[in-house]
Amino acid sequence: MREQTLLQDLFTFIDQSPTAFHAVANLEKMLEEDGFVRLKENAVWQIKQGGKYYVNRNDSSVIAFVMPEGEPLGFHMAAAHSDSPCFKLKEAPEIVVDDYYLKLNVEKYGGMILSTWMDRPLSLAGRVIVRGKNGLESFLADLDQDAAIIPNVAIHMNRDMNKGVEYNPQTDMQPIIGLPDRKGAYHEWLAKVSGVKKEDILGEDIYLYNRDKCRLLGIGDAFIAGPRLDDLECAFAGMRALMEERPKEYVNLCAVFDNEEIGSGTKQGADSTFLKDVLRRICLCLGVGEEAYYRMAAESFLISADNAHALHPNHPEKADAINKPALNGGIVIKYHGSQRYATDAYSAAVMKEICRRADVPYQAYANRSDIAGGGTLGNISTAQVSVNTVDIGLPQLAMHSALETAGAKDIGYLVKALKEYFRQ
Ligand code: CO
């Protein structure tokens, strides 16, 4: 029963979070409902023992933390990312095609599987910046209707279609949204769903998203399928666990960073000063001094949670000989010889102990030695805040597809393990 509720909450969260801006707004809503107090980076912070707080940057990254009753020894941190690969609309996106169609000029955001975006209903969402009474104001925008589609070329026009197609992001991936007589409708729509005047819109970050909802799938509901499972599963689990536990001697903290899919190098990404600034500011507010920050950092731990590759049913040869995760096989601890995953013997041991105490299964992932694999948050954020870090994730298939597949049980394992971690 509890597992069903957790999955339903996860599905609702992902369905309502088409972009990183929406994911952060929804996480903040959950935090507010749980009594967390908002801190602003450009205002004075007052932090009390036992208090619960959150702070965001760019409305697309958020860090939430819970203070212990006494003076903290260090930070128990979890991190995940709010963004997923998708298409971003260019500044002036409307293109008319030969008086036949109105389409949108888009570019890639991150490394998606292009073919999975074809022939499926898409919509548009993001944020707009408008001229308000008190200066510039930000509004969320979500069209929330079947608005666009990127049609494939018919097989009759490309007989080699099933031999593998190379999709060009500039020529092949532009979605149609209507007929040429509706030129200008895009900005009218944007104004309408944001609740603002068209002429007041000064800036926009708008993306295409897959209209599919999350659902259970397979015999015995073994699987879940949905968009953006990487990494909204882990973002949700991190915040849920943070809200459900009270710390004893450490500051519990969960960071959800934007821009992991494009290398984390933005002002709000894992490679920014965001986390370091928050940690240092907590120390400053506690009045414990600079020395305490370094002492606490040395006593801290980071669980970097970003989804991992499960063994592929049709391509088992893509996996390592032994370290190949199974769906519903539990939390994946990721290892990499060149430390693209930050896990080492010490941090792996800590994670295994957490899982053992939480009575949660865990498994190992390593790339095949002849495959480069992907990066994640762990080793990037430790360049800014150098603490013991373990890279973990939930096993999934088709990472960076418009529709991804994962195990139905694993999200429950992650929440349980992170609760155990935050309880210490
Ligand atoms: Co990811």
Compact overview of the structure:
This protein is 26% helix and 27% strand. It has 424 residues and is α/β, with parallel strands linked by helices.
Can you walk through the features of this model?
The protein has helices at residues 2-15, 20-33, 185-194, 229-244, 274-286, 289-298, 345-358, 378-384, 410-423; strands spanning 37-38, 52-57, 61-66, 75-81, 86-97, 101-109, 122-132, 135-142, 176-178, 201-210, 215-217, 223-226, 251-257, 301-305, 308-309, 331-334, 362-365, 388-393, 395-397, 404-407. The two termini are 27 Å apart. A nine-stranded mixed β-sheet has the order 1-2-3-13-4-14-18-16-17, sandwiched between helices. The chain has two domains: 2-84 and 227-423, Zn peptidases (Aminopeptidase, 3-Layer(aba) Sandwich); 86-210, Aminopeptidase i, Domain 2 (Roll), CATH 2.30.250. It is built from nine helices and 20 strands. With 424 residues, the chain is of the alpha/beta class. Bound molecules: cobalt (II) ion. Cobalt (II) ion (CO) binds at residues 81, 230-231, 260, 306-307.
Number of helices: 9
Structural class: alpha/beta
Q: Under CATH, the topology of the largest domain is which? A: Aminopeptidase
Task: Determine the oligomeric state from the structure.
Answer: single chain
Low-confidence stretches: none
Largest sheet: 9 strands, mixed
Considering the protein shown, what is the CATH homologous superfamily of the largest domain?
Zn peptidases
CATH architecture of the largest domain: 3-Layer(aba) Sandwich
Number of domains: 2
Quote the average pLDDT: 95
The termini sit apart by 27 Å
Large-scale geometry: globular
